[in-house]
Specification:
The chain is of the alpha/beta class and 645 residues long. It contains 22 helices and 18 strands. α2 runs parallel beside α6, α6 packs across α9 and α19 packs parallel to α20. The longest helix is centred in the N-terminal third of the chain and has 32 residues.
Length: 645
């Protein structure tokens, strides 16, 4: 009896395509364990209703199976085409061993990677993960410097070996029940039709069933989401988002600009307009310091009690502190885009990294047209995120870490030199411009406030590689040191310093676009010119460029979407926040979100907690949001956002 049962078992498990069932079972099992681990890590942030629990794991299993349908394609083709004689050989066992070793260790590696990605961004793989593939040196270096990677690899190999040992009788049965080529061709074609059906028939949006973003993300599958992001990293606005007739869009934006100051500024088509000032132009130098991942809530000025930004808090009391400023996006390239192009974030990839992004109308090009030396100075290598290519072709002279001699570098990690070394480099370039009797505009991009949070020892009272707070405090120290040195320079008294974040340290929240995760600080500092005070009007990151130019009384023909917030009417206050696909528009204490599939929703956000409640759509606000984003995409695509000759 026992022998008969074993025979039936071997016939079932030893069938030609049985390894496919084992591979699917392993993928789903490891995906389930990953989902459970991420659920535990985010336990307090997830909406744990009974319905949500069922949906998380039911929809999650569906996406796990969808991902598995793609993962088994090589195995299906192999088992279909390999001859029977070879299939029964020892060589086949070796090949199956290699295949399952690769599958298991890849699944475990993916699970570990998802854990770290979730820890950083609180989402499954998305556009950011795909984006990182381009910069493997920086990403792998960051992982090696942040985590005990050698130990992790050894543990992964040990787990893989253990699973292979447990599964050896299933993977290599003693008897094989084979099928004829004609019959297995039918099975193979049916199996290969499944991923084809998934590709065309399964929607990535099915996991968005809850108002709680953590709940939605847990129901996804990292590998499936990665594939979706890979194939959809460029989102054409007109294809995926709600649109209006272009003439209506133009009229809406034109009227917004005419109403901004109440002065009826003369405008041409689109956003082109003349910016005029009755007062004499101030030929001041401008140093714009864009700080990596500086959330507003790091500063004591916004309620933080950790005392990790003493220099910036002191600066805030001596200058003009902007208390109601919001970043355009969640990545450095989005901050750079907003600061240089002063344009709403377009869906998909940042313009900084897109093709055909040369000779655009930028803050740097305006300063250069006024006789300034216009610079972009970066602590890392400028090829990262296409910075050198973008800035050098759009009105800036680019200087990166390669301009520093080895003796000038106190410390560096995979992202770049320590911020104090970046500021040493910056000081050298600014001194050159002053000696050459050139007014200068310099945009300086820091790097130290980034995982692995390493910096020179002995500068602050938090050891290197300890925490984000340590990196924040070190960057704060470096900025303070730079300004202390700058005060000794002859050009200091005629210089406007602007310190602002590129984006927040984290964009994760319980809702799709948590507004508190876009709140960033900015300080205008110029002793003798700036009176200590606070500016509390709602301000968008893309308003910074026009506001700087306005402070200098600079007249120019502008294409910027940003406002001069100093002269802006109270009724014109608005801000833009986004991910790579969700486009948010804040106005009148409401948040309009545009999503692919031409979806539009309006919310009442809580600016302290980031939570939001869905409300009825406001047609006027909806049309404004659509017009801003549609026109920004249109101008870029039609090459109408070029420099004005």
């Amino acid at each position: 009896m026992q022998k008969l049962e074993n025979s039936k078992f071997n016939k079932t498990i030893g069938a030609r395509f049985s390894p496919i069932l084992i591979a699917i079972a392993m993928l789903c099992s490891i995906s389930l364990l990953t989902r459970l681990a991420l659920s535990i890590a985010s336990f307090r942030k997830v909406d744990w209703s009974v319905i949500n629990i069922i949906k998380i794991f039911a929809i999650g299993l569906f996406y796990d199976l969808a991902a598995a349908s793609f993962a088994i394609i090589p195995l299906v083709i192999y088992l279909w085409l390999v001859p029977t004689r070879f299939y029964r050989s020892k060589t086949n066992k070796i090949l199956l061993f290699i295949y399952f070793f690769i599958v298991i260790i890849t699944l475990i590696f993916n699970a570990v990677s998802e854990w770290f990605f979730w820890d950083e961004f609180s989402v499954r793989y998305n556009f950011i993960a795909v984006d990182y593939l381009v910069y493997t040196t920086e990403v792998i270096g960051n992982i090696r410097q942040s985590y005990p990677i050698n130990t992790i690899i050894l543990v992964m190999v040990a787990i893989t070996a253990g699973l292979l040992f447990l599964l050896r009788k299933l993977i290599w049965p003693t008897q094989f029940a084979d099928t004829h080529f004609k019959k297995r061709s039918l099975y193979a074609l049916l199996l290969l039709l499944i991923p084809l059906t998934v590709y065309f028939g399964v929607s990535h949006k099915w996991k968005f069933f809850s108002n709680n973003q953590y709940t939605n993300e847990l129901s996804g599958n990292g590998m499936y989401d990665f594939g979706f992001a890979f194939w959809n990293n460029q989102l054409d606005y007109n294809t995926f988002y709600k649109t209006l007739p272009i003439l209506q869009v133009e009229n809406i934006i034109r009227n917004i600009f005419k109403d901004t100051t109440g002065k009826g500024l003369a405008t041409d088509r689109y956003t082109s307009k003349m910016i005029l000032h009755t007062q004499a132009e101030k030929r001041m130098n401008v140093v714009l310091i864009s700080v990596e991942s500086l959330s507003a809530d790091f500063l004591e000025s916004f309620g933080n009690q950790q005392h990790i930004t003493p220099e910036l808090d002191s600066l805030a009391k001596k200058g003009l502190l902007f208390t109601n400023l919001y970043a355009s996006g969640t990545r450095t390239v989005r901050g750079l885009e907003a600061l240089s192009l002063c344009i709403p974030p377009t869906p998909g990839q940042s313009i900084v990294k897109r093709p055909d992004n040369k000779n655009l109308f930028t803050l740097g090009s305006v300063f250069r047209s006024k006789g300034y030396s216009s610079r972009f100075i970066y602590g890392g290598y400028g090829y990262f995120d296409n910075m050198t290519e973008f800035f050098s072709n759009n009105g800036y002279t680019v200087t990166d870490r390669s301009a520093l001699k080895d003796a000038e570098i106190h410390y560096s990690n995979i992202w770049g030199v320590a911020d104090e070394d970046l500021f040493t480099l910056s000081m050298q370039e600014l001194d050159k411009d002053y000696q050459n009797k050139k007014p200068f505009f310099a945009q300086i991009m820091t790097v130290s406030n980034h995982r692995p949070y390493t910096y020179p020892e002995g500068r602050i009272d938090i050891p290197s590689k300890t925490s984000r707070e340590g990196a924040v405090k070190y960057t704060d120290y470096a900025i303070g040191k730079f300004l202390k040195e700058a005060r000794k320079k002859l050009w200091f008294s005629n210089t406007l310093f602007v310190v602002v974040a590129d984006h927040c340290a984290s964009s994760a929240g319980k809702v799709e676009l948590p507004v508190d995760r876009y709140h960033i600080p900015m300080i205008f500092y110029s002793p003798g010119h700036i009176v200590p005070s606070k500016f509390e009007k709602l301000t968008a990151q893309l308003d910074i460029g026009p506001t700087i130019l306005s402070y200098l009384n600079m007249g120019y023909k502008s294409k910027f979407f940003g406002h001069d917030v100093f002269t802006m009417q109270d009724s014109a206050q608005r801000a833009f926040i986004s991910t790579y696909q969700s486009l948010g528009y804040i106005r009148n204490n409401k948040l309009v979100i545009l999503n692919p599939n031409k979806k539009v929703c309006t919310y009442k956000p809580d600016f302290k907690t980031g939570n939001s409640v869905k409300v009825a759509n406001d047609n006027k606000l909806t049309n404004e949001a659509i017009s801003y984003y549609q026109l920004a995409s249109y101008l870029y695509q039609k090459k109408l956002y070029q420099q004005i000759q």
